[in-house]
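Weekly puzzle thread! Below is a chain. First person to post its structure in token form gets bragging rights.
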Amino acid sequence: MDENERTQLEQQTPQENAPEQPEQKNESVTEARDKTRRNILHTVCGGYLAYLSYKMFRSFSELIASEGWSGNTIISLAGGVVFATVAVFLLVGVVRRVLRQIHEKD
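Winning reply:
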């Protein structure tokens, strides 16, 4: 069997060992899943940070009454402010993205 006949036979027979090409997903479906995952993650993280900031502000109010302005009091206040700020940015971002998606569908 010469070289030409061999290459023709190889091209005609299906190769079982060759990995199949994965089907390409629709970009819009993949993008929608990514947006949904991001929204869920930001909602959970924003909610948890809001909870932590609430707990830190409660701790601050108890510490300021008992200890005055100490290191723990200042850390509770600063942590509560930072966590509340990040929580607000995350949750507002989720609301804006969801409203934009609703507006684009209409």
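Puzzle host: Confirmed. Bonus trivia for everyone else. The chain has a mean pLDDT of 83.
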